[in-house]
Amino acid sequence: MAGGRDSFRALLRAANALLQQRRYHAALSVIKGFRNGAVYGAKIRAPHALVMTFLFKSGSLREKLKSIAQATFAHSRNLAYFVFTYKGLLAAQAQLRGKKIPFHSFLAACIGGWLVFGDNNPINSQIIMYLLSRILFALSRLAVHKGYIPQPRQDPFPLVAALVWGTVLWLFEYHRDTLQPSLQSSMTYLYEDSEVWHDLSDFLIYNKRTDSK
């Protein structure tokens, strides 16, 4: 028993010593990136899938739990693969060039995005749209910082909010099929289901009646 503990401690010391080796830093960074991508993907997707599934999807409890597990696994796997690919390509380019330059990040991420997120499915679609909205905000701020466009005299956010909401509700009312299914479900719940009720039960307590009254 004591020998087993000693062997484990020796193995642990050897692993910790390896982690401190600077020459292995790039490879170890890729491995930890894979780990962090998997964990972060699960943390982000699990609560989202849980809420959306129980709010909007029908089916048995087993079917709902299976759907949550599948969505969480897909998000976790894809993010882990992407981080692994991105960091690996970044390290390879730096090794070949002798230093890191900004284009390396763009190229590595483009390749990773094509390989990992190129399949047009609901999970990837949600991730890409999440990133796209933040990219547009970031590029707008960058354009101001670089002097490509003048600094606004007033905060433009109220105008952006008005245009975003005006556009999305117009699309929902007249071109609904262009919106992502989960957004359609959310808006149906908010703006159409609120038009229908029969009595106090499905006016305040439930969204829809499940009986045949």
From TrEMBL:
GO terms for cellular component: peroxisomal membrane
Coiled-coil region list: none
Pfam families, alphabetized: Tim17
Superkingdom assignment: Eukaryota
UniProt-listed InterPro entries: Pmp4
Alphabetical list of PANTHER family matching this protein: PEROXISOMAL MEMBRANE PROTEIN 4
Protein name: PXMP4 protein
